[in-house]
Design a protein that fits this description.
Blueprint (H helix, E strand, L loop, with lengths): L13 H58 L14 H7 L1
């Protein structure tokens, strides 16, 4: 098995090192800025999704409360028996 050594040589002059440092720092700052925008976008989408889901849950619970109010009421009314069947006579006893 052969051993291969990989080495990274520094640029030969100071000017190339400074340019490399400036480019490296610039790319790092650019990555931070792009990451910040992506994070802000994801947080914004999450906030919008949370608002939509919260509004939907509120709307569904509001409708249920209204239905409970309607179902829980006692309706009083007058009525008249039109015809008495055999089944009705057996239940009255």
């Amino acid at each position: 098995m052969r051993n291969i050594r990989y080495t990274v040589k520094q640029p030969p002059n100071l000017f190339a090192q400074i340019i490399g440092l400036i480019v490296g720092v610039g790319l790092f700052v650019l990555a931070i800025v792009i990451g910040g925008f992506l994070l802000a976008g994801l947080l914004g989408l999450g906030l919008i999704a949370w608002l939509v889901i919260s509004a939907r849950v509120w709307w569904l619970t509001r409708n249920r409360e209204q239905q409970r109010d309607v179902e829980g009421r006692i309706v009083e009314a007058e009525y008249r028996v039109v015809e008495v069947t055999d089944r009705d006579e057996h239940t009255e006893k």
